[in-house]
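## Example pair
The file below holds two records. Each record gives the amino-acid sequence first, followed by its structure token line.
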Amino acid sequence: MRPVYMISGGITKFAKAHPEKDFRLMVKEAFDYAMADVPALDRREIDGSVCSYFSDHFTRQLKAGAMVQDYLGLCSKPSRRVEGGGATGGLSFQSGWEAVASGRMDVCLVMGFETMSRVNTWKGNEFIALASDTNFDFPVGGFYTGYYAMMVRRHMHEFGTTVEQMAKVAVKNHANALHNPYAQSPARLTIDDVRSAPMVATPLTILDCCQMSDGAAVTILASEEAASRLGAAPVLISGVGSGTDAMRMADRPHGKVPLLPHENEADYAHLKYPGVHSFRGGRSAAALAYRMAGISDPLRELDFVELHDAYTSSEIQTYEDLGLCRYGEGGSFVDAGAPFMPNIDYGLEFSGENRWPRIPVNPSGGLLACGHPVGATGLMQAIFAFWQLQGTIEKHLGDATLQLPEPKRGLIHSHAGTGTYITVSILEGV
């Protein structure tokens, strides 16, 4: 297995709708942007591609990936489609990594898109709900806001998590997005704004939930030799991990918490795990990625995280799965200000608790504020991590506010269903 580097990326603006563009044109715009950032790369040197999109229903087109491959002028090179619910982008990124790490390709294009505006919102939610068990969950009202409302209710019961803590996540991510011109929903919010928004599924208001979107994203991965030859400013993909879990939450057995290197059994002596309050697949994905990247204490060895915040509640749950804090401490982690950018005024007061160092989570704005065109989302996370580690945020966004000082290592996290597929990838500056 050989080292794999990310050498470029490009995205379109994520928006409620791009009626003037079909999926091919959106990917082409992102592709052209990525290619322009590595001028020495000729498309003839791209050995193949991975195409990421969640649902054929939104495009009303089977084999859309082949159509994109043709539109980019990459026929007759190898290509394949990857699909895995909300984790589609993260899975495709790791699939591209595998193509280069194995030696099958020297340069691999990973491209993703979704055109969710082509259907009404209620129909889009129905299509998304097809990613639950259609024989069991779906007939009893299985829309995802309902699942996540149930899970956070249990988190609140077990750990004392509050709706105000959830609202702070929305305030954070929407405020970060004010500095991201690619984001769909930048906004300056207050806790009252979030809590007084229309209720979707108690306790989740509409501002606790991400939105359906149109958009595309492209990453270019390369071997060490190719990255050097092309004169790129590469970022190393130093760790990859993924995990799965039973589709139906009722089928998930209880057992001991899988420990990360900095934890011990005494931390969780009385915790019933995973219950419906935690994502066992996310813990497995993190453990594998940390082991590969040589990370023993993620909170102190990572500089930032871009994670799958489809709901404010799932961001808090994921802090715990990734080991940024212990299970049950996610709400306190928010109150302490640990996942907030150090240089942005959010209009919030923090508890002053100093158990955790500052580790910005979702500097980009995350899914809550950027939007969630599913096949592009995990790739968007990779692109923002790449620009962050390159130190090129100002170049690409026209605003340096989101640039961290000398970041060395970041984590991206993609999540499907109620934690059925989850990926974690570690990127490092070189």
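Second record, same layout:
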Amino acid sequence: MLILTSPTIQGKEIIKYYGLVAGDALLGANLYKDLFSGVRDVVGGRTSKYEEELTAARNLAMESMIEEAEKEGANAIIGTRITYNNLGGTMGNTIMVTVVGTAVSYQE
């Protein structure tokens, strides 16, 4: 599956647009406690455990989006965007990762 942030596929003809596809993943509220209450693994001011969790959530959201596109029959997703939102409120410090794009078929 070809995944692009651009709205076109350079040098290729898009033959069908299927519409928006999306994937979501949540990082649990206990992540902050786990990261900052125990031994911190900080390298260059960055917390590697937190980055690992964000990467895992982003990958899960991407996989979900790809599955949705494949069900439609698409072979590419264009205009892909990734957002991170702190849900706050009753959800504590839960972070939601959302990936959205347009599923298309292009002439290979």
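Notes on the second record: The longest strand covers residues 14-27. Residues 37-43 have pLDDT under 50 and may be disordered.
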